[in-house]
Each structure stands twice: as structure tokens, then as C-alpha cells.
Known about the structure:
Chain A is α/β, with parallel strands linked by helices.
Amino acid sequence: MSAVGDEKIRISDLHAFYGESHILHGIDMTVMQGELVTLLGRNGAGRSTTLRSIMNMVGRRTGSININGRETIDMSAHKIAHLGLGFCPEERGIFSSLNVEENLMLPPAVRSDGMSVEEIYELFPNLYERRMSQGTRLSGGEQQMLALARILRSGANILLLDEITEGLAPVIVKKLGEVLVMLKERGLTILLVEQNFRFAAPIADRHYVMEHGHIVEEVHANELEAKAEMLNTYLGV
Amino acid sequence: MATFLGINLFGLFGQLLVGLINGSFYALLSLGLAIIFGLLKIINFAQGAMYMLGAFFAWMALNYMGINYWAALIIVPLAVGCIGVLMERYLLRPIANEDHLYSLLLTFGLALILQGAFTHMFGSSGMSYAIPDELKGGNRLPFMYLPNYRAWIIISSLVVCVATWYMIEKTKLGAYLRAGTENPQLMQAFGINVPLIVTLTFGFGVGLAGFAGVMAAPVYSVSPDMGSNMLIVVFAIVVIGGMGSIGGAILTGLGMGIVEGLTKYFYPEASTTVIFAVMVIVLLTKPAGLFGKEA
């Protein structure tokens, strides 16, 4: 396979704005087919904004965002998901006026080979048990699983996941880690915003470190030890 | 004459029936308002004008084009709905990001323009629209006389209200609507064309008012101010029921019609104010309305 054909996301010189605030200052990054890439950095570094910019959920964006070889910078927000993107927002975005199953079935299929409802319930048995509950009555961990499950059902093969382990119990974080590894084995491409470096380090192929709306470092999995000190400085862990 | 504990049953049931008829219209109109408010956060002051348009369109269709009541019942709500679609797309969307006060004023102004235009064209005395032949006559029940057309109003508005409720609460399309009400931005990110849903929802909510207008044409006089008279009461009902509750809008609409009917029988002097009295009491005790969620 050619390297170019394998590029799922290519971002060049991306600037993003909320109203008058200039949040991203010229981001360049690529994510390859089947890769799990994380965006590391402190709160406010622009990691979530990067994901939201890809989904066209920011006020204004300039530069170039190529997804599966298609330029999306001028594309309307509702068309972007249909390129095979699934977005899991930081606040999880579970709808309180919908029950669990309605939440699960909500996103339209963006590709044809999404996980079936049976597969999803097998992967997350809790969701099956609580499928008739109001979406927001679930525990934080269950809500996170639901937020992940619904984009898997849609068939998205490029996942943008924002802080999926935040505030969750270790046993659930472990489960989510296993799910991500499983998805990676299936060939899905994952761009992960993560605060929990210990969660991200063992499963990710590459890391981008962000600060003040810039990408300041790119670290490959095999360079983690060598660059540990630098990471400590940026992340303050 | 049938009486019970000194109550004239004929009179009582007669007023109850009138109350149910009014309640049916209240329910249809407040349902449309609730749907529009839920998704667009717009208080549509033109809802009464759309109801008036529905009645006039039915009248014009019959008198100018020979389109009968039954055809009008389908065509007119669609036509009014199309006007709603154009209104959302070309008048409301450009100000969608402004303060909601702008859309409120815009719809209010539009209502005044429509009412004025129809007064100019048809005068303010009102026109009559004959009850369709199939629904003339009535049945003598043990305690009251029930005209067929009135029974038809109650049944068909109930069917439309329940079908709308079912569509919103139980179907996939309704799930889009509910989710779009909560978090439109995330819906877009899932690949759902929210602006299109918003436009169609507005058209549907306004179409409901058009439907109510056609239903009303044979029982009320078709006049330019029929909408504005109705709308004030309907707003009170929406406040009582609580903004944003679909089932609440329907139940409150019917319930307030009955309350009004009962008051007409027991204390006629208060019948035009009773709904506002209820509104005051509800606002004092449950500010979010009977079915509304506390903010």
C-alpha cells in the first residue's frame, strides 16, 4: 500500500477561532490508516478544539483538513461525518430526552459495515440491561460506553475521541483501553485526546504534544523513554 | 328537561361540548407552538395568523376553485406548511443567531401584516363556510344533542394530536427532533442535516395551525381577527402547560377548553378570564408550568 493512500487525516496550517479568540495557530498533523494517535497537552492547549475543528464545530477555521483524500475545510458540518468520522465529545453528549437504545440508534450510518446492535450489546452488556433507561440516568462509565458504542454502530472508521477516560473508575478505564485495542486490531483509525498519559502510552502509536494552540512535539511510541523528561515538562505529570 | 341536583344537564353538557371544541383548537395550536419552540426556541406569534390563513385558504379554495372541504383538509395545511417553510428559510434563518426577541418581533409583525391584508381584502365582518354535507345533522344522546361536525372536530383533532405525539416521542424521526432540541451541534457532527430538520419542523408546526384553521372554518366565522383572538388564550395555555412539553401542550389545551366550558355554565361572567386566572395560579405555584421541566 502506498503511504499517501493510507493517510486518513491530513491537517495543514489549521487555524481555528471562537468568535474573536484565536485558538489554533497553524496545526500540521497526519493520522495514518489503523493508527492510534493521541493529542497530549494541558487543559486549554487546543486539543479538544482540534477535534472540534475537524468536525466543523468551531466558529471559524482556515487552512486545510483532508479526510480520506477529500478537502473538508469548506464542507458543511453535517456532511463531514459521512466521510466515515465518528466523534465522541468530551461531555459525552448523551441525550437526556432519549433512552439508551434511542441514543445508540441515533447517529445515521455513515458507512455500511458498522457494528450490529447485537455486537455492541455483547461488547457492552451493561447497555443492554439498561437499554430502556433514560440516557442520562446511566453512570458516567456507562454513558461513556454509550457515547463510544453509538459511533461504532454508525460504521465510522475514523474515531475522534475526546477525554474518554476522564473521571471514570480504573476498572472502566481498563475496559475502554481493551476496547480501543480491539478497534485498532480491526483496522480503525483513532485520534484520541487524553489527559491520562498512563492510559494512552501503552496503546498509542504516536503522540502529538500541544501547547497554546501549537503542536510542539511529535513523539513515536518507541521514543517515549528517551523523551520522558521533555514530556514531563510539557504535561506537568 | 333532565336535571341532576338542580343542574340543567342539557346546559351543562352543551357547554362541556363547546369547551371540548375550543379545547381541540387550543390543543392543535399550542402543540404547533410547543414543537416550534422546542427545536427553534422561537415564540411564533404568527401561529394565530397561520390558523386564520388556514380558514381563509379553505374558504377561497371552495369559493374560487371549487375545492371541497375534504380536499382542503389535506391541501390547505400543506400550503400553510409551505408558507412556514419559506418563512423559516428566508425570514427567520437570517436572524437565527440574534437574540430571540428579534424572531418574536418578526413573527408578531408578520401576523399584523397578514391580518391587515386580509381585513383589507375581505373586511372584518367574517364569512361563513358551510359544514360539508357528510357531516350535517347530529345525534340525540340521552343528555345532549351532538352535532356530527362537532364530534368530528373533537375526534379528528385528537387523532392528529396523538399521531403527532407518537411521531415525536416514539419514532426515529422524533428522536432526531428531540435530540436536535437538546444539542443541535452534536447532531450535525453525527451527519444529520439539522437546518433541514429545523425548516421542516417549522413547516409542520405551522401546518398544524393551518389544519386547525380548516377545521374551524365551518364552526367559527372566517374572519381576519380569528387568529389573534385565539392566540392570546393559546399563549396562556402554553404557559400553563409548560414550554417544550408535547404531551403537556395537548392535555393542557383540551383541559383548559373544558375548564372554560364549565365556567361558562356555572359562572358565565368569568368564562373569558378563567384561563388567565389559572395561568396566574400555575405561575405562582409551578413557574415552569404543569408539564414543564424546571430550568
